[in-house]
C-alpha cells in the first residue's frame, strides 16, 4: 500500500542540481537543460542550469507573443523562409520572432485547445452526475471518491479517511463514463496521476489542515505519505549517502529520479491541497471550476500557495516534517508509518524514532530547503 509521496522540484539557484535533460526555469519561461549547440528550435538563457558545463544552458521553446511565429536566437539560428521581428519574444535583444512568409492573410483563429481541456470536461461531467445522483455526500466529495476508487479504496485507505460511495461508482459506470488516468501538467510537462490527486484531495477535504506544527491524516494522504516512504529510501541507501539533508537535495522531487517522492508527486500534493482547502472552506464552489482556474494560470503559483499555506516558513516546515516522522496519538497513522518506512527500507530499517537529534535536524532541514527552493524558483519565473 502507498499512503503517498511528496516533494519539490529544483531548489534555489544555490541548491539547483539541474542535469542535461532536466526541466529548467527562468523569467523567460520553462525549458530543458541541453548543450547550446543542440538548441536549434528555440533560444537559450544562462543561469538556469548552473551546475552544468558552460556550454549547457536552458533551451526554451516559445511562440511569439502574437502567435505569429517561433522565438529564436537570431545570432545563432537563421529564420529560413521568413523574417525576424523584434519586441515579440522574451529574453534579450538577440531573441526575436521568426515569422514565415505568407501570401494570404490567415483567418482569425479560435483559442488553441489546452492539453488539460479533456480532463476539465471529464471532471465537469462527473460533477454533473454527482448532482444528479444526490445522496448525503457533497458532489465535490463524490467526484474525489470516483477519482480514487480504483486504486485508493483498500482497507488501509478506508481506515484512514473512509471508503468511497460504491453506489455512486456504479451510477457513474452505468452512465458510460470512460475513466481518465490523468493529464499532462501545463507547467512542468509531466503526466499527473488522477487517482493519487483525487485520494489526496479527498483527505484534505475531509480532514483539513492540522494546527501549528502538528500533522494529521490529510497530510498522510499526500505529502506526508510521500515523506515517510522517502525516509525509507534514504535509510535503504544510507551506506552510500549517510547525510539525510544532502539526500533530500539530491533526490527529492526531481523530474527524473525514480523515487517515491518525485516532482510528479509534489505537483499532485500541491494541487490536491490548494483545491481541497478551497472546496472545504467554501462548499458552494465547484471542483470543476477550481480545476479550470488552476489550469488557466493558477498553476503558476501552486507551489507557493501550497508550501507557504501548509508549512508557513522554513523553520515550521522543518518542525512539521519531524512531526510527520515521529509517533503521535493516532494509532492508524503510527501503524501506517512503520509499514511505509519498512516497505522501502526493509524490515530491520532504522525507524525515525531512533535517529539522533543531529541526524533528524539535518534530514528535516534538507526537506525544508528543498521545498522553499521551489518557491523561490517559482517567484523568479513570475517576475
Structural descriptors:
globular, 14 helices, alpha+beta, three-stranded antiparallel beta sheet, single chain, 383 residues, disordered N terminus, four-stranded antiparallel beta sheet
Decide which structural class fits the backbone: alpha+beta
Note the gap between the termini.
41 Å
Uncertain spans, ≥5 residues at pLDDT below 50? Answer: 1-18
Report the C-alpha radius of gyration, rounded: 23 Å
Largest sheet: 4 strands, antiparallel
**Please, what is the average pLDDT?**
89
Spatial strand order of the main sheet? 1-2-4-3
Q: Tell me the number of strands.
A: 9
> Which sequence of SSEs, written as H and E, runs from N to C?
EEEEEEEHHHHEEHHHHHHHHHH
The portion of residues forming beta strands comes to 5-15%
Q: With helices defined by DSSP (H or I, 4 residues minimum), what is the helix count? A: 14
- Percent helix, as a range, is 40-55%
- Describe the global form: globular
